[in-house]
Amino acid sequence: MVLLVMYMITGFYTVEPKEVGVVTRFGKFLSITGPGLHYHLPYPFESVNIVNVTDVRRVEIGYRTIKPAPDARYQDMPEEALMLTGDLSIVSVEATVLYKIKNAADFIFKVQNPENTVKDAAEAALRQIVGLNTINDILTSEKAAIQAKTRQLLQEILDKYETGIMVVGFLLQDVSVPPEVEEAYRDVASAKEDKQKKINEALAYKNQIIPKARGEAAKIINEAEAYKAARIAQAKGDVARFEQILTRYKMGEDVTRIRLYLETMEKVLPGLNKIIIPEDSAGVLKLLNLNQEKGGEK
């Protein structure tokens, strides 16, 4: 009887606040118990697995922590860290996955080695996301986006296999160019900087020359408009003057004809002494210049 009592007492167990108990009967999942004192049928009928579901666990990709802080030491894992980018460049990526258990039953019964499963799935997800980005984006502006996308993809993979794991964080610890290709990458980066410099110089020249050309074009247009206005005004003045002459001509055709003739001769032969002989004049006496002084020019 005492042995039976002692045997039955072995069925009592305690679950701490951070834990849950996974009860199995003959190896098959039966129930999950929360914090407190509980009882199950003694072994081999039932057994319980206590699982911590609140602590955050971590998996490292591309490196391993040999000694934690304050005197931290790390070991590189190049076979995990080296990855191929979308533009066929090689980049070294080190990352940390933070996770905890969201379903203790799945975690126990459907995952044989949880840590290796998370590491392999995280490495596969990270390689896929890195392969969709260029090396410049990975090294500069897209780090946050890569972290978010990798975390989302990793969670989808773990949910697909019903691991009972929830990813609470994915952090890129170090992203760099491998030493073997660092010099070549610097040459490429320098060439890209030179390219951008030439583009900026061309844009500056464009911004300088286009306003100047527009100003010159506007100047030419304004001068043309002014010339056009002047020619129109002159033409209108010529028309008005011709109309006035025509009016006067009609009032006295002979007088106007003679005046126009004299004005034209004045313009054609400027600075010369001119003698006007009427048509009805006869003899040469009228041609003598009686006002010319004696001894003067003839």
TrEMBL record:
Its main location: membrane. GO terms for cellular component: membrane. Signal peptide: none annotated. Keywords: Coiled coil, Membrane, Transmembrane, Transmembrane helix. It is found in: Membrane. Residues 10-189 form the Band domain. Transmembrane segments: none annotated. InterPro entries: Band7/mec-2_domain (IPR050710), Band_7 (IPR001107), Band_7/SPFH_dom_sf (IPR036013), HflK (IPR010201). Pfam families: Band_7 (PF01145). Gene3D superfamilies: Band 7 domain. It comes from the Bacteria. Residues 181-208 form a coiled coil. NCBIfam families: hflK. HflC and HflK could encode or regulate a protease. Belongs to the band 7/mec-2 family. HflK subfamily. HflC and HflK may interact to form a multimeric complex. This is Protein HflK. It comes from Anoxybacter fermentans.
